[in-house]
Design a protein that fits this description.
Elements (H helix, E strand, L loop, with lengths): L2 H38 L2 H27 L5 H11 L6 E9 L2 E9 H8 L9 H16 L3 E7 L6 E7 L1
Antiparallel strand pairs: 1-2, 2-4, 3-4
Helix pairs in contact: 1-2, 1-4, 2-5, 3-5
Length: about 170
């Protein structure tokens, strides 16, 4: 390996370490925000705040996706588009488990919120979990034009979370 290549590798290594440090700081900050929200607001109010933040971000995601791909009529097709074709659900690993009576059940395999919860030793009862539900809801509402809601069915900070998407 030449001297230039060694410098490039070292530079990439240094950037990676910087990214890891920034990620850790943001993880701690998000965990502290959740804890403070829980302390100053009732848990339901804190969950609503997080959910609204997620919905707003999700709507922006849905708008940009709709501009690029057009409106999608079926919610499951919109979810599939968001998961696999856009790369816009970075930080999430989501799969459709099954569809039953117009309700779409999904498994959330990876989630940046879960990483924060694990790091801060919090549970999925944390208000932060509302961010994910709101994010998916906002994106699907905007992309499909349908009124959907997303609810946690089961949450496991060390495993898979299951959610359901209800089309109203």
């Amino acid at each position: 390996m030449s001297g230039t290549e060694k410098l490039q590798v070292q530079s990439l290594h240094d950037e990676l370490e910087d990214c890891k440090s920034h990620n850790k700081v943001l993880t701690i900050l998000a965990g502290e925000v959740s804890t403070i929200l829980d302390e100053i607001a009732k848990t339901d109010e804190a969950r609503s705040i997080c959910r609204i933040m997620g919905e707003d971000a999700g709507r922006r995601l849905g708008k940009s996706t709709k501009k690029r791909f057009g409106a999608i009529a079926k919610v499951e097709e919109a979810l599939d588009l968001l998961m696999y074709r856009t790369g816009l659900l970075r930080g999430y690993g989501i799969e459709i488990d099954h569809i039953e009576d117009g309700t779409i059940y999904i498994n959330v395999l990876n989630c940046f919120v879960r990483d924060i919860l694990k790091d801060r030793k919090l549970t999925t009862a944390s208000p932060l979990c509302g961010i994910t539900c709101g994010y998916i809801k906002g994106a699907l509402n905007e992309l499909t034009g349908k009124d959907v809601d997303v609810e946690v069915v089961y949450g496991d900070v060390n495993g898979i979370c299951r959610e359901k998407i209800v089309i109203k």
